[in-house]
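thread: overnight batch results

M.L. [08:02]
morning all. the overnight job finished for the chain we discussed friday. pasting input first so we're all looking at the same thing
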Amino acid sequence: MLQTEQVAAFRGERLVLQDIDLTVQAGGAALLIGPNGSGKSTLLRLLAGLLRPAAGRVLWNGEDALADPPLHASRLIYVGHLDAVKPGLTAAENLRFAAIAGGGEIPAALEAMGLAHLADLPARMLSAGQKRRLALARLALSSAPLWLLDEPTLGLDALSVARFATLLAAHRASGGLVVAATHLPLPLPDATEFRLA
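M.L. [08:03]
and the structure it wrote out:
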């Protein structure tokens, strides 16, 4: 279970989050919704341990999640709004780094996001949507229980969103947790909506 207790955060000199109480149970999902600049990405970065809260705590199964940063990093995968794709590497080579940490199979991950036929193509040749699918294919390689996603469906067509929905459903069925910042509907049935102003 992931929780925040009275979390606050600054971006620069501006308070963007205050008194945030969020709970996501095993198999659950939370959608962070709000206008640009409302703190969605900041909250994801806090949950990932990339930022320290100005106040409050982030908890994992009731314990301080940020007390042991390497341990916390091992239980999550973060897919930001940038794809983090190396243009000089092929699609398959881009996934090799994720496979080292997660132990999953690269061909299956590429297939899950409809990229198997592009495995040997340099990433610089991929379209924006294909690069996004490659970033999301890292999820199929990960054994981390917590998925933190920032605008995951940006640039995806309907078929790609359906493929992504399959990954999300399988992760949640195995007890995984998902927290996603979004402006668009996501295929996360029964997700809790958490609105930021």
